[in-house]
Amino acid sequence: MAWKVGAAIAGLLGLVGVTAGLGSGGDPRRAGWRDSYRPPAEIPFPSENPYSAAKAELGRRLFFDPILSGDGTRACATCHIPDLAWGDGRARAATRMQGDMDLRTPTLINIAWQDGPLGWDGKFRSLESVAAMPMTSPANMNLPMADALTRLSADASYAAAFATAFDDPAITRERLEAALATFERLIVAGPTPFDRWIAGDEAAIGEPAKRGFDLFNGRAECASCHSGWSFTDNSFQDIGVGTGTDIGRGRLKPTSAALRYAFKTPTLREIGKRGPYMHDGSVATLEAVIDLYDRGGIDRPSRSRSIKPLHLSATEKADLLAFLATLSTKTDRDLTTASFTTTVPAP
Prior knowledge:
Elements: E1 2-4, H1 9-12, H2 30-35, E2 42-44, H3 53-64, H4 76-79, H5 132-136, H6 145-154, H7 156-165, H8 173-184, H9 193-198, H10 207-217, E3 236-237, H11 249-252, E4 263-264, H12 286-295, H13 314-325, H14 332-339
Helix pairs in contact: 3-7, 3-8, 10-13
Domain Cytochrome c: 54-163, 207-328
Keywords: Electron transport, Heme, Iron, Metal-binding, Oxidoreductase, Periplasm, Peroxidase, Signal, Transport
Pathway: One-carbon metabolism; methylamine degradation
């Protein structure tokens, strides 16, 4: 079920549609491509966990509260930091002992549109099922679920907040997960130069970025996976990176040769603020990411059929970088403010 934002939809979400004749020059398919990047009119919430303001506020409080960690030093926001595009800026997430976990922290931006399964390898069936693993992991927040529920039940303000958010005042794992997921679905990308261009402002991005957009959707085939307003098709792909023992989705689907070394396609929103890149943080810069795609990555049976050497010129690489730069908000304030609203920000 999708939650209707309400009477403000027209003003806040109703971006100017891209008409067939909008703009000039570039690839003749550009107008059609632009149309596919228009923002949605609704923030989707599942019917089994519909939106309510009380539930979202409870989830926000829980997200930032170290009460959910064993020693009271870590919270969800320890790794998902608003000012770092809801990631942590590390190659791999930090353990509570300040070591490295196996994977980097994924952003939560536009998580409402990330269809399950979730996680780099798809181990989570839904957003509601994600929170328990980091909470109870000895390497992460290190708090058994039973202890978390006991703590929350003993806190009078949390007891009141749960009673307000749910029909039954009992504090359960399912309600804890539902509140966190409700808040996280409100973490929405802020308006970017790209969005203003999609809405019809031809001056919002430069000509190199427009050429990069054409390349992204055309010959480079980036949009075969990074498609639509959220710049992901939610698929799992082997893009020819990673040579270690972690084979991603292939570990959970061992009979599928195509899923060996396949990892979740992430959104490209705020991509300029989210380095290093890939599931393991093994690629330091966007320039290096483009070089990886340009050479086609590691040639192996599971590599996606859309990944192949591109033989891009220096100018084409620069154009792609210019385009990717348009997918980030101007300042951290833009992103953080947008993330706490219940609307898809207008450009």
